[in-house]
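Re: [help] complex structure
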Amino acid sequence: MYFVLTALRGGPLHGHAISKSIKELSGGRVQPSVGTLYGILERLNERGVIAVDREETVNGRNRRYFRITDEGQSLVEAEARRMQEAASLVLRPTTFASLVRRLTA
Amino acid sequence: MTTLERRYRRLLLAYPRQYRVAHGDELLDVLLESAAPGQSTPVLREVWGLLRGGVRTRITHQATGTAWADGLHLGVTAVSAVNLAALLPFTGSLPLWTLLSVLALLAVMHGWTRTAFLLTLVIGVKAVSIAGGWQPLDLTLLPVYPSSLADRPLFQSSSPLEVAVGYGVVLSGLAVLAWRRHRPRVRSWWWFVAALAAAWAGPSWLPEDTLFPISLSKMAAEVVALGLAVAGAYLARDPRWALASGIYLVVTSADLGLHGDQLTRQHLAYWGVLVVLTLATAFAPYRQRRHALD
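Output below.
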């Protein structure tokens, strides 16, 4: 869900473009199947986190373009901040650890 | 149409028809765009994703409409299926009453509440009469001997009160649904399969001489149905499955309670499984969200 919302921060995208964007953003680590991706899109759409921006017909098939809503924008930013704080607990040297390092140097 | 498209279309059948009509082509478009040139077989990851997505969509699509009314209707359907299951092994001796019971379940499943109420009332009176040894509607040779599906006469171990509980719950539920004047959704034909499984007396897992037998096939049908209810409650975060499971548990508990002096440890273990699964349907909708986007 996080990568879907991150992908949509750049502007409205359709399913295949979202899938490609997720792959790029995650460095190829995350590549949801189409069934999984559309399950996420439907749930986010129901919760009002994303919305259908417009619909187009390509090769006789309907294609929905999704955009992130204001609520979605706030949610993904809050989630990014939460993850940043969690990461900083591990990556930032603690006072005690730096003190030990200084003493043993 | 290419071979790959045809195969993906087949896999999309996992989704409910309504969803397929609205978005099936869109999913197919993305699947075909993601495919390698000359590819004719769906990737395993996509196959699994479509099957999971389809089942999930089918379950969450059930969580529409008024939760309490839908849950009540689902519970009434389950108890009606069990009422039919009690009569099915005796079709040879009671063809008319079994047929009426089939029609009653059919009417419940289609949401024809008034028809279902009348049919259930008539069958209920007959069933309670057979359990009590009375003959108010027509003459029936008692005891009613079974066919290959059962191993003992009809209602041999059931009191009239016990039979009345099952029919009473269905009648009360149908009365509420009829009063609401909003036709409930059409239920799956799988309820007839569940009734057939519940009707079969074997394989046996309780001692041969038990006075109150519960077949393994009935227990399997109950575990599958309640397991699906737990999945529905978990995925859709909706309480309707808890209400339906609760109604079913009340009827089963009354059934067991009225045989209090004949129960074994296996009976209690069976009841424990039903209680755990019912509690799971009650708590699953309120599970904690793992993160803000869950």
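Residues 35 and 43 of chain B are 8 Å apart (CA to CA).
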